[in-house]
Write a structure and sequence with these properties.
Layout: H1 3-44, H2 57-61
Length: 62
C-alpha cells in the first residue's frame, strides 16, 4: 500500500469521525491512529522503544 493511499484512508476515517461523531470522535480517531502508526513502525522494526526513553544528550555521550 502506498503512503498516498494510506493517507487517503486516514483522511477519510478522520472525516467520517468528525462528521458523524463530532470533535471528540475526531480527536479519538486521530489519537488511536497515531498509536497504531507507532505500534506498526515498532513491529516492522523501524522504531526502537528506547528512542522514547533516551534523552538527546545520551546520543552525544556515546
Amino acid at each position: 500500500m502506498s503512503m498516498a493511499f494510506a493517507g487517503l484512508i486516514a483522511g477519510l476515517a478522520l472525516g467520517f469521525a468528525g462528521y458523524f461523531g463530532g470533535f471528540g470522535a475526531f480527536v479519538l480517531v486521530a489519537a488511536l491512529g497515531a498509536v497504531g502508526f507507532l505500534v506498526g513502525r515498532f513491529v516492522d522494526g523501524d522504531l526502537d522503544a528506547g528512542d522514547f526513553f533516551r534523552g538527546r544528550d545520551s546520543e552525544r555521550r556515546r
